[in-house]
Design goal:
This protein is mainly α. It folds into 2 domains: 11-40; 72-160, no CATH class. The chain contains 6 helices and no strands. The longest helix is centred in the first third of the chain and has 27 residues, at 12-38.
Amino acid sequence: MKIFTEENKPSWKIITAFIAGMIFCVLLYEATMWFHDNYRFQPLIVPRYMSPVIEEPIVAIPITPTAPKPNKEASRSSEYELAYNKVHLMESTSGTNKTGLNGYCINNGGVNEIGYAPHLKYCFTDTQEQKDTFMLWLDNRLNKIKQPYCNSIDECLLTYSNGAYGLE
C-alpha cells in the first residue's frame, strides 16, 4: 500500500517551504529566549518602590519667621497710592471710561477700573476691594512673595501693564 500516489504526491517545493518555516520558528524561539536571558529591556514606566524600612515620624518644630511681617500701614505708603492712582488713570481714565472690562463689570453689578485679570473678566464688589487687591498684588511682588518678582514699583507697573506704562 502506497501512501503517496502520483496524483497526490507532495511536491518538493511544499516540503522544503514547510521545513524552512519550521527552522525559522525554532531560530526565532531560540533568539527570543537568548534575549530574555541576556538582555534587560527598560520598561516604559519605571515603578517607584516604597522603602520596606519603617521610618520614625518626624516631629515638626515650629520655626519663628526671621523677617518681620510687613506692616499694613507701611504697605500703603504714598508710593503705593501713587502707583494705584497711575493704574487707575491709565486703565479706566480714573473710572470715567465705562467700556471694556469696566463696562462689563458695571453691567454685572461690579467694578474693575484697574484692568485686573482681564482674561478672567474679574469683577470686584466695590472700589475699596479693588484698591486692597491691587495693594496686595503690589506688596506680594515687591516683597518677593509671588512671581513675577519686582525690584521697584516702576518695574511692577511695567509688569502689570505688560510694558505699556510705568510710574513716570
